[in-house]
Specification:
Length: about 230
């Protein structure tokens, strides 16, 4: 079984509309859909925004359903100016940009007194995603950074790109990557670029709808080839 997650209702709307839904449940206010995508069993849920909620729900669903893999989809802000709104970024790895204990000598992104800093997406799943022709824009492989802050200024964007070699930024990927890594479950992170992380105007709700369609396209194709 594959666990499919997105942060917001709008990010998973096209997935739940397109999949075969066999049952809908709820856990502490979080909707959980069970069914199939391309004939493969899935559990799909909305985690809520941010690292704490996404980690909490991910661990609960692992305990409840023992998935063989985890796929997280949704939107991200670009840290590279060559990325266009609507492009897809397939994460090779992900890190927490706001885990900062450098004052005590730890690397930026390092969880102190642990081996955890960079969470590597499963190469096989990355390869399956990279083989999909995107319905919108171009597809890129790269590093996705995660933090409990919506990045909306060019100075922060440039700092994250330079200090952690980030390509895109969002608010859940590395927390789910941490949970997946600790549980030894392969994971994949796919994001649609929603903005340029600089505060410039963007029709966010329209982009979320586009991203949901993009996520559904990728999931349908990936699940066919598992």
């Amino acid at each position: 079984m594959t666990l499919v997650l997105g942060a917001m209702d709008g990010e998973v709307a096209a997935i739940t509309a397109g999949m075969q839904v066999d049952a809908r449940e709820e856990w502490k206010g979080f909707p959980v859909f069970r069914g199939e995508i391309s004939g493969r069993p899935v559990v799909v849920s909305r985690t809520g925004v941010g690292k704490s909620l996404s980690a909490m729900l991910c661990q609960h669903l692992i305990d409840a359903w023992s998935p063989r893999r985890i796929i997280f989809t949704g939107v991200a802000g670009a840290l590279r100016t060559r990325f266009e709104i609507g492009d897809t970024i397939i994460a090779v790895d992900t890190m927490q940009h706001d885990m900062d204990v450098t004052a005590l000598g730890f690397e930026l992104g390092r969880i102190p007194y642990s081996p955890h800093r960079r969470f590597v997406c499963d190469p096989g799943l990355v390869g399956l995603a990279a083989a999909v022709v995107p319905p919108h824009g171009a597809a890129h492989r790269g590093r996705v950074l995660t933090g409990d802050r919506f990045v909306a200024d060019a100075a922060t964007r440039e700092r994250l790109a330079q200090t952690l070699d980030g390509d895109a930024v969002e608010m859940e990927g590395a927390s789910v990557g941490l949970v997946a890594t600790v549980n030894a479950i392969p994971f994949l992170l796919i994001r649609t670029i929603s903005d340029h992380s600089d505060g410039s105007a963007v029709a966010f709700e329209e982009v979320v709808s586009l991203a949901a369609d993009n996520s559904w396209h990728y999931l349908r194709e990936i699940m066919k080839n598992l």
